[in-house]
Amino acid sequence: MSALAAPNEVITKALLRQVNVPGLDRPAALITLDNGFDHKKPNTFGPAGLTSLDEAITAALAAEPAFIAVTGKPYIFCVGADITALPLLADRAQALEIGRLGHRVFARLKDSEIPTFAFVNGAAMGGGLELALHCHYRTLSAGAAALALPEVFLGLIPGWGGTQLLPNLIGIPAATQVILQNPLMQNKMLKPKQAAELGIADVLLEPADFLERSLEWAAGVVRGEVAVTRPEVDKDMWAGVLYFARQTLDQRLHGAVPSAYKALDLLETAKDADFATGTAAEEEALADLVFSEELRSGLYAFDLVQRRAKRPAGAPDKGLARSVTKVGIVGAGLMASQLALLFARRLQVPVVLTDLDQARVDKGVAYVHAQIEKQVSRGRMDKGTAAKLYGLVSGSVDKSVFADCDFVIEAVFEDLAVKKQVWAELEKIVKPEAVLATNTSSLSVTAMAEELTHPERVVGFHFFNPVAVLPLLEIVRGERTDDATLATAFAVGRQLKKSCVLVSDAPAFVVNRLLTRFLGTVFAAVDAGTPLEVADRALDPLGLPMRPLALLQLVGPAVAYHVGGTLHAAFPDRFGVSENLKRIADSGQPIVVDDEINAEVAKLLVVGDQPLTEEQVRTNALDALAQEIRLMLDEGVVAEAQDIDLCMILGAGWPFHLGGVTPYLDRTGASERVTGQRFLPRGVASLAG
């Protein structure tokens, strides 16, 4: 075993075979990457896997084939380095060695005098895509699930040639999009058609006979019958593109993500440096980042969304879940309409909306139909599926349509009395075992159910807006919610392809409680006399997806004020009521216009004479978060700190480099300063020691 190998490394073997291809006088050498598992455990490269590939290339070259091709097991090409081994590296020298090993092995395909091909038959990410870039030619399956260089998202850089090869293949604007922009947009993936249009692949082939067509195409290239032309890369615009990219990073991240800036520097190097110099710079950057706190937080966050989100803590036995054959939605507004489309599309069962009058019902159903039409027009849905969805979604003003529903969710006005009235009416209509779910963002599920004959079937089912985008679903157990109801809620959540977190029935649950406390400290600073722009940029060093005032505008000042009032009633010592926030909500004016604070809104404020500095605002906000999280954990709102982080990542879009929130509070000292203890043990989401 290599000195770099992880003790439990799942080895991706490079399996070599000779393939006779019609029209060629010599066999082709086909190397298939396969770790011995199905597509649910993708191919990755650790040291042993790289060594296996190295040996396969040696054997292939020795056979003097017509060409050498690399492909993957079914549905998977390779998803890159085995990142689970990175925390096991002992020192910077080992990090350099793993970078050099990948470069040395992959470069053999780039430098080969025998033509080399990558047959990208499935998902190709990170080092897997970099392997393909080293080959002279690339075919791509139209069925490949995901293509990306996501390293910056985790706190790394493409460290096996990606920063040097990609811009010199597809140009600096497109390379900047793939290496920087997409990872920082919640790790956006490329679809095969997009990758082909960018020039990453030379030809796009259908998946049904992908390998056969790839071999034929490669033979055509070798015989000189297929000409592969690539546009010349424009280097005159290189500096300008990177200047703009750096400005954008500064505006968005404010220096908070070291990997993004390292990647930018490497893209700059790629313009004029020879390949050896560029890859040496990659190795140094990789070694620096491997021992950064941001990477440890990124790996921790990655593990949360890949593992913990799929096995929710505290979820009951799946066997208790009831089947759901029809869904009812109370309300036909925007949130209800989004829910109707989601339920129909994922569960493939009838979904019926109700509201107070026919005009509202018609508007809600029309919204669903318009969204389906939009999917068809964009080529994201076929007409057959669209026709089926049209038939599944209906509306009525008569609540008796809920009589045969197995699952009914309300999305009405956020008022406890209104919601209690809804459930009191529906309990007389729905069958006894039907689950009653509330999409409340802050109200008590227990209080909502307390006057019902069967309170045990009421459960919180809190989505985040936009419903189709944000993956978090807070499933709230009321004091009397039974296991069958809870199991059904989790089963439905999984069918909806949401990441479910079990939350106890506490005011505003997790995300809204923390964001309200966070925004509350910012507005308390404004109320004290801190200029809006000072309070707004105080959190810039965290590199959050948006500044506080932009977040407030997205949530809606009226909604934020309402949730704040709910939390003030529950915890008056920690959640204040800002009259300035009420003034903004009542004005109906946008807080931010074209990324600038609205001067008219600023005139509405009545402030004190004790302004805070940016550092003071930031310290107060972090201290407030640390205090609130500790109290939530003590109250048992969630099982562990990891669930807090999962909620903030998936429901609020907080970045991987923060690990959600608790790793950042630990490494900045806020957790110990406020609570006297860390949220996570040393070495978890942080450097050990």
Features:
689 residues; 6-stranded mixed β-sheet; disordered N terminus; lyase; NAD; NAD+ binding
How do you describe this structure in short?
This protein is of the alpha/beta class and 689 residues long. It has 28 helices and 19 strands. Helices cover 48% and strands 12% of the residues.
- Separation of the first and last Cα atoms: 27 Å
- Specify the number of helices: 28
- Kindly state the percentage of residues in helix: 40-55%
* Estimated radius of gyration: 27 Å
Largest sheet: 8 strands, mixed
Assembly state of the chains shown: single chain
Spatial order of strands in the largest sheet? 12-11-10-13-14-15-16-17
Strand content: 5-15%
Q: What does this molecule look like?
A:
This protein has 689 residues and is α/β, with parallel strands linked by helices. The chain contains 28 helices and 19 strands. The strands form 4 sheets. Strands 12-11-10-13-14-15-16-17 form an 8-stranded mixed sheet, with helices on both faces. α17 links the parallel β14 and β15. α10 packs antiparallel against α11 and α22 runs antiparallel to α23. The longest helix has 22 residues. The two termini are 27 Å apart. In the central section; belongs to the 3-hydroxyacyl-CoA dehydrogenase family. Belongs to the 3-hydroxyacyl-CoA dehydrogenase family. This is 3-hydroxyacyl-CoA dehydrogenase. InterPro entries: 3-OHacyl-CoA_DH_NAD-bd, 3HC_DH_C, 6-PGluconate_DH-like_C_sf, 6PGD_dom2, ClpP/crotonase-like_dom_sf, Enoyl-CoA_hydra/iso, FA_oxidation_alpha_subunit, NAD(P)-bd_dom_sf. Pfam families: 3HCDH, 3HCDH_N, ECH_1.
